[in-house]
């Protein structure tokens, strides 16, 4: 009688880079921009280092093949400051009064703000097209540091990326810093990219 042969199931092959990439969590990153070049430098850093071409090449093939792999979501956030009242001298001397802009002036300023926001966001979204990411825009109005933290709380990103204006110590003391505030109050890790610096500063 022939000996029974127990067949063992074949061993699973080691996971390929493509298989490993499917298990990777797609990143969600918030990048706050304004009209400073530093904020766009921060955006470029995030795209270069968080969504690399090597990761895109290792991504599994898509169906249809013509589609590009998407490694994550980049939320481009722009905060418009509310229109402030103007303080002007009301009479000779130290006395001052508050000038309230007319409705036409307010409307004109708001229109200019909207146009500026549109230009900034269009530039940012165009830049994102060069990387394997999905990009969406967000516009908020209010104090930038508070609105950025509010956006983080509502969107729950993996990382908040900010540019630094490189303020001197005296200006930082009196004016405060949006990036410093967010580093202490945002409910996610915060990464600050300094101007003309190749390496960012990890704050949290």
From TrEMBL:
Basic and acidic residues bias located where? 1-10
Which residue intervals make up region (Disordered)? 1-26
Q: Which residues form the UspA domain?
A: 99-194
Q: Which domain of life is it from?
A: Eukaryota
Q: What Pfam families does this protein map onto? A: Usp (PF00582)
Q: Which PANTHER family match?
A: ADENINE NUCLEOTIDE ALPHA HYDROLASES-LIKE SUPERFAMILY PROTEIN (PTHR31964:SF124)
Protein name, as recorded: UspA domain-containing protein
Q: Upper lineage ranks?
A: Eukaryota, Viridiplantae, Streptophyta, Embryophyta, Tracheophyta
């Amino acid at each position: 009688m022939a000996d029974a042969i127990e067949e063992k199931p074949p061993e699973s092959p080691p996971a390929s880079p493509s298989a490993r990439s499917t298990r990777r969590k797609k990143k969600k990153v918030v990048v706050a921009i304004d009209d400073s070049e530093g904020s766009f430098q921060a955006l470029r850093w995030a795209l270069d280092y968080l969504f690399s071409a090597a990761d895109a090449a290792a991504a599994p093939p898509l169906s249809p093949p013509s589609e590009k792999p998407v490694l994550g979501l980049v939320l481009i956030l722009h905060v418009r400051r509310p229109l402030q009242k103007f303080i002007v001298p009301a009479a000779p001397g130290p006395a001052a009064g508050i000038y309230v802009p007319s409705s036409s002036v307010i409307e004109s300023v708001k229109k200019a703000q909207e146009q500026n926001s549109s230009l900034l966001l269009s530039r940012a979204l165009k830049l994102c097209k060069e990387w394997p990411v999905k990009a969406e825009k967000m516009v908020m109005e209010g104090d930038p540091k508070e609105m950025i933290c509010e956006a983080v709380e509502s969107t729950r990103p993996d990382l908040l990326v900010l540019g630094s204006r490189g303020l001197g110590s005296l200006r930082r003391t009196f004016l405060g810093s949006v990036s410093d505030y967010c580093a202490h109050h945002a409910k996610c890790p915060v990464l600050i990219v300094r101007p003309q610096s190749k390496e960012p500063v990890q704050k949290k």
